[in-house]
Amino acid sequence: MLERCVNFACEIIGKLPFECMQFNFMQIALLATLFLAPLTAVAGVQVVNYRMAFFADTIGHSVFAGAALGVLFLGSNGAAWGMPLTALLIGIGVLFLQKSGKQSSDTVIGVFFAFIVSLGLLLMSNSNNLPKAGQFIFGDILLVTAQDTALLIILAIIYTLFITTAFNPLLLIAIDEDLARANRIKSLIFELLHISLLALIVIFTVKIAGVLLAGAMLIVPAAAARNLTRHAGRMFWGAAIIGLISGISGLFVSAQEWANFPAGAAMVMVSCIIFAVSLVWKKATR
């Protein structure tokens, strides 16, 4: 049912007065961008608040091990399941080790990063049935399918409902976890749900921007929004708008004949330009 809605939306997009939008893969790419770009930007606000930039990179790099484990245990099509499952396990593992209090957060994430990257590269180097590492490193939004977009829409709806209901608890946890517990907020449950959804968002982002730039799609729009406002609610809206502008602009620029670079890199570059402008604005209005 949802895939039919995606196809119907693509037909509407195909009526836009742009030559590049006459191709089905570009229609799907634009539709995916309309959901993923603001979604990653909004999720990036919590990443910035929780100082989890390195965590996002760790989840992104888990695709190597996830794809390898999925193929080894689930067959040739197992990569699609192995990547999100591995990302969820890594996210939950990082959270529980952080809660143990025996190691600092950056140490725990650093150890997981080293483990998951080395495991993925070891597995991928010894198998000819696995996807090429290059498609994970650089990403390609033009390879996103209607089914991927349908799953992305579901994820965007779930995350929107979650962040709407859990906004105040997550904000209080980010400020002072002890104070959150004093207010009877079950921080572990909120953080567990947040980590799990964030892991899935990062996996989707890797398909578009690749491992190297997945974290940037979360962090840069949120950082730009933080330069423009200190109001927590406005920061979410600002990040979503910046992410949407960056995503659409980057996709259209990469579709031009004179452009010979991937869409993910173009999206991140546009968001970096917006961040530079926001930094100038912040200093000028201080």
Write up what this structure looks like.
The chain has helices at about 1-15, 25-50, 55-75, 80-100, 105-125, 135-140, 145-165, 165-175, 175-180, 185-210, 210-230, 230-255, 265-285. α10 crosses α11 (about 210-230). It is globular, with a radius of gyration of 19 Å. It has 13 helices and no strands. It starts with a helix and ends with a helix. It is mainly alpha-helical and about 290 residues long. The longest helix is centred in the N-terminal third of the chain and has 26 residues, at about 25-50.
Helix content: over 70%
How many individual helices? 13
Strand content: under 5%
Morphology call: globular
**Tally of extended strands?**
0
- N-to-C CA distance: 51 Å
Q: What series of H and E elements makes up the topology?
A: HHHHHHHHHHHHH
Report the mean per-residue pLDDT as an integer. Answer: 80
User: Main sheet, how many strands, which sense, barrel?
Assistant: none
Please identify the structural class as seen in this structure.
Answer: mainly alpha
Index terms:
286 residues, globular, mainly alpha, 13 helices
What's the quick description here?
It contains 13 helices and no strands. By secondary structure, the protein is mostly helical.
What are the SSEs and their pairings?
Elements: H1 2-13, H2 24-49, H3 53-74, H4 79-100, H5 105-125, H6 133-138, H7 146-165, H8 167-175, H9 177-182, H10 187-209, H11 211-228, H12 232-254, H13 263-284
Helix pairs in contact: 1-2, 1-7, 2-7, 2-10, 2-11, 2-12, 3-4, 3-5, 3-10, 3-11, 4-5, 4-10, 7-10, 10-11, 11-12, 11-13, 12-13
